[in-house]
Write a structure and sequence with these properties.
169 residues, alpha+beta, six-stranded antiparallel sheet, 17% strand, elongated, transmembrane, transmembrane helix, Septum formation
Length: 169
Amino acid sequence: MLLLGPFAVAVGALALRRVRTRGTRGRRLAVTALVVGAVETLLAAVAVVVLAVTLAGLRDLPTALDGPRDAHPAQVVPGHCLAGLPPDGAVRRVQLVPCDEPHAAEAVSTYAFAPGAAWPGQAEAARAVAASCRLGDADRAAGRTAVAWAPTRAAWLLADRTGLCLLTG
């Protein structure tokens, strides 16, 4: 798909040159090919840049942090501590802090859906992840509660099929 834009620009330029030199019809079609090809090339370039920036932002983070750090939810793994919990709903960014500093929650486990599984729906995904969160007696006695983060449909379509269990308190 990425080569169709430049191809349309090249064909449009070639056709425009032939229309001028031979005096034949087709100028509008040649100009249309140039414009559509240029727009498609520009959109493809923007998409590549956005994808590169997104993937660069999703690199693995160490669990031992030396200070606060913003992260995408897909970067949070067991051993990370969160400064605060975002409100319910889709989580865009979180702030990780060293676990020896005050924190609102700690990631303790993950739940992996089957790689080829069909989207179960948000409620079922949340239920499956929540069922995997296990609180020990010591956690209950300390007043901790489990919070489950399930993948959204958008994340699922991008092959993110991992849920996360966090302990608060």
